[in-house]
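The pair is listed for reference:
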Amino acid sequence: MKKRRFWPPVLQVPITGMAAEGRCVARHEGQVIFVTGVAPGDVADLRITRQHKNYLEAEATFIHEASPDRTTPFCQHFGVCGGCKWQHLTYEAQLRHKQQMVDDALRRIGKAVGLPPLLPIIPAEPTRYYRNKLEFSASPNAWLTREQIATGETFDRRVLGFHAPGRFDKIVDIEHCHLQPDPSNAIRLRIREYARQEGLTFYDAVGQTGFLRNVVVRTAESTDEVMVIVQVTDAEGENLAGLLAMLEAEFPQITALHSVVNSKGNDTFHDLDVPATKGPGYIQERMEDLVYRVGPKSFYQTNARQALRLYQLTREMAAIQPDDLVYDLYTGAGTIANFVARQARHVVGIEYVESAIVDARINSEINGISNTTFYAGDMKDVLGERIFAQHGHPDIVITDPPRAGMHPDVVAALMRAAPRRIVYVSCNPATQARDLELLSPMYQATIGQPVDMFPHTHHVENIVVLERMTLDQQASAAAAVVASAKTANEEAS
């Protein structure tokens, strides 16, 4: 495709479907266009924003015909804030498109797997105020909307909110967020007000100057416990005590109050001390009869209610027998490992982050679970002959990798271990499908179950159950792949 310096508006283009990352697809004069801010079924005028070799990117400038899937967004920050980009779709339409996205990924990328039809997606309940963790960034240079600029008014640009889409240096001021329940909004607004009144400086990500960097709020639905983590630089450290004292006095519902002094170039604090001003240093969340401690550095599923359903489905699909040895890969804080331990003879959990493994062991201890063993390290290095020699080959493997999926060495180790069943939980159906195809010479996918964890976004979880095939079945599957490839080559020639 020859690049143009200027694209004229593309008028009255039908939007035909959903694509990856929540964008929509249109086609014009044989070219594929990925469009933001529209819905399948819209007819829109488009402004081309970027040209690639095989496709274009665009944004809608006018909607001529609105899709029947559309609804009125409920948040005042929709279209400016980078979150909840699917608010303009009805929840029924969101579920339908997520189901289709998972199905498309598994059949397009994992074409050799032979997956049966997906089970209907499990909807989330509730669809608002479902997150238990949010991080708000400070800035002295707020992102202003076109409408704000057009007023000619002067705005206080010292803000505490979310990053504008694609910008590390611009923060959208948030008045009310529909993602996290009370007292999240009240805490954020009071910190912003206090910092302005007291003349505290807000962190400038470009110049790396200023005092207030960000605020993390964690809530526990099952116990009503609240954690707040205030992150500052050391430039004006004497102001930290006053800010923390205000929070402790005005928000008695805060059960764990922490601070971080961070002068690094980024906001990550896993390598820093996070001292507690109030509370035991953690909050607690319950799943069934289990209690999980969540510290300031702990990983925990951000939608706790839906995570419980996800783990119940995972446990059910694993069909663990009392004498089974289970490996839980990418175990995090041991949430799944401890959740299934009572069904198994023993559970081995492996996780890269060492602090998460500390949490996993604590979670086993406080729940009286003695049949778990946890290891910290790179999965491709830990999962191998040494651990197999020590614990034995697994009967069941549960794997819940990050968005990048599993390293090829991990897939190879699973093939050598040859568990009878693998339950693959994924937040990225595309990399899941890739890994399923790598496993397909030995494993047959039997169940696919999408789960909506994050309403009003394009993100979706998916569970796939893989059963080890007999040698005869493996031979038949290999022959089918060879035959399919031969047919494809003949058709291409």
Q: What stands out?
A: The first strand starts at residue 10 and ends at 18. The longest helix spans residues 471-492. The chain has a mean pLDDT of 93. DSSP finds twelve helices and 21 strands in the chain.
